[in-house]
Design brief:
By secondary structure, this protein is mainly alpha-helical. 54% of the residues lie in helices and 7% in strands. It is built from 15 helices and seven strands. The protein has a three-stranded antiparallel sheet with strand order 3-4-5, with no helix packed on it. A two-stranded antiparallel sheet has the order 1-2. A two-stranded antiparallel sheet has the order 6-7. Helix 4 packs antiparallel against helix 6. It starts with 26 loop residues before the first helix and ends with a helix.
């Protein structure tokens, strides 16, 4: 039987504390923004596409017709949708078994929209230190302008997101015409406001709390991973004991490479310390990898103190292995996709 990777919870930040993550740049950060652009270009762009004089993707619930480019599905064809959901779930399980919560860190809508809202916040209120100071200051014209501008931008973006989502169920071009003429139906208006508010609350106000307390995926991830799964991990063998200085004096052979700068904690959107091991709160966003690599480079030490690595690689210095669990998920996926393709 394969060893299940232990995942524990570390209360790095009190539930009532507001996390102001430090901005970060690096190769993984750039990949996250590429995913933001790709996913949002798809989400906001697809409802405007036409296919043979009709909307390319439209789930017309009233007419009970689902248009997917050239395909027209009726309720009896929902078996295909169910099969697609099963394939998506298995693909998620496979990805988790191989590279942990890579979906959470790069493509989950909560992650994507939180990144966008945090970018707006950074533009309106400044760096994480400025945001902390702003929290503590009394209400002034400047604070009202900065906070008001940020929330106004969030609301507008949330409403546009809600409008776009409704556009998948109500033809987008007529919907836009109704919006411009102020003749949108009450129910359509309700759903636009509902999804807009949902986006505003989740990405603007709740943020990491959705991942920590509401998302079920984070709770059962331990059952999908084992000691061979790649995760964002701190190499304690190399990093400990922490030296607490930036001097690169290799004569101090007993000191590790970690200089205890705590920047890995400051950039973490969930406020954890990755040096405490694999944790339930870690979404594999890789911000700590980018920051640690920057610090290691600046002090003349090798990168990779925090990196994608398996528990076996850290503890036993073994190479990555494609385990029986991973092969099993792959086989089921190939068989299922083959069967669906042949239908």
């Amino acid at each position: 039987m394969q060893k299940i990777i232990p995942i524990h919870s570390v209360d790095a930040v009190a539930a009532s504390d507001k996390i102001h993550a430090r901005s970060i740049d690096g190769i993984f950060s750039r990949w996250r923004w590429i995913m933001v652009w790709l996913t949002q270009a798809f989400f906001y762009g697809v409802p405007w596409l036409n296919w043979s004089s009709r909307q390319a993707v439209l789930f017309d619930l009233e007419a009970k017709r689902f248009y997917l480019f050239g395909a027209v599905l009726i309720p009896q064809d929902l078996i295909y949708l169910a099969s697609l959901l099963v394939v998506s779930a298995l693909l998620l399980f496979f990805a988790t078994a191989v590279v942990g919560r890579v979906w959470c860190g790069f493509a989950c809508p909560q992650t994507v929209y939180t990144a966008i809202f945090m970018w707006v916040e950074n533009k309106c209120e400044g760096s994480h230190q400025n945001r902390k100071r702003l929290d503590k200051t009394r209400w002034t014209a400047e604070k009202l302008l900065r906070r008001g501008g940020k929330n106004l931008a969030w609301v507008v973006f949330g409403l546009w997101t809600g409008f776009t989502f409704v556009g998948y169920f109500t033809a987008m071009r007529p919907l836009m015409a109704d919006a411009l003429s102020m003749t949108v139906s009450p129910w359509t208006t309700f759903w636009i406001l509902f999804y807009g508010l949902f986006t505003y609350l989740n990405a603007g106000l709740l943020r990491e709390k959705v991942c920590l307390h509401m998302c079920p995926y984070g709770r059962f991830q331990g059952a999908l991973m084992d000691a061979h799964t790649l995760n964002v991990a701190y190499d304690h063998r190399r990093g400990e004991p922490r030296r607490g200085t930036v001097e690169n004096d290799r004569r101090l052979a007993k000191e590790g490479h970690c200089i205890d700068c705590t920047l890995c904690v400051q950039v973490c959107p969930t406020g954890i310390d990755i040096r405490n091991g694999t944790q339930l709160e870690c979404t594999n966003c890789t911000a700590c990898i980018d920051e640690c690599d920057t610090i290691m480079e600046s002090v003349g030490l090798p990168k990779g103190l925090i990196r994608y690595a398996s528990e076996d690689e850290i503890e036993k210095k073994s190479k990555f292995q494609f385990t029986a669990r991973m092969k099993g998920y792959s086989a089921v996926l190939i068989i299922l996709v083959g069967v669906l393709t042949g239908l």
